[in-house]
Amino acid sequence: MPLLTRWFVRTALLYFVAALALGTALLVRPLVAAAPLLSAAWPGYLHLLTVGWITQLIIGVAYWLFPRPDRARPAPPDHLGWAAYVLLNAGLLLRLAAEPVAILDPASDVRWLLPFAGFMQLGAAICFLLLVWPRVRAR
């Protein structure tokens, strides 16, 4: 299994546990004094599950299982995969930090971080596309 795949899969598992922990906290929020903060964490919970767990796991496994390029079609360098990893996780963590603040205080200055986080994740998707596109070939 390639090193890049191991990093994607391990990170996905960490986000899966974090999403389950946050989901549990959201279920018990009526019993907790920090209920407004937990209510603002709902979009982060969904993002942890969809981007942190599912998307990251799919990317890692797809990178591992897609056909390897041959001599006629050399593989792009792995730095595209590492760029996808860094951009995806940086965008996710930035969103997890900024979104509750933006929800609780709509007048705050952190709202501009949300589109920036989205562009980081879009950049990760483009890097992954460039990485695996040569592997998708017709017989």
Could you walk me through the main structural features you see in this protein, from its secondary elements to its overall organization?
With 139 residues, the chain is mainly alpha-helical. The protein has one domain (3-135). Helix content is 72%, strand content 0%. The chain contains 5 helices and no strands. Helix 1 (3-27) packs antiparallel against helix 3 (42-65), helix 3 (42-65) runs antiparallel to helix 4 (79-104) and helix 4 packs antiparallel against helix 5 (113-132). The longest helix has 26 residues, at 79-104. The mean pLDDT is 87.
Compact overview of the structure:
The protein contains five helices and no strands. The chain has helices at residues 3-27, 35-39, 42-65, 79-104, 113-132.
Overview features:
139 residues; mainly alpha
Tally the helices: what do you get?
Answer: 5
- Total tally of structural domains: 1
Which sheet architecture does the biggest sheet show?
A: none
- What is the strand content? under 5%
- Class derived from helix and strand content: mainly alpha
The end-to-end distance, rounded to whole angstroms, is 25 Å
Provide the residue-averaged pLDDT: 87
Order of helices and strands: HHHHH
Task: Show the helix and strand layout.
Elements: H1 3-27, H2 35-39, H3 42-65, H4 79-104, H5 113-132
Helix pairs in contact: 1-3, 3-4, 4-5
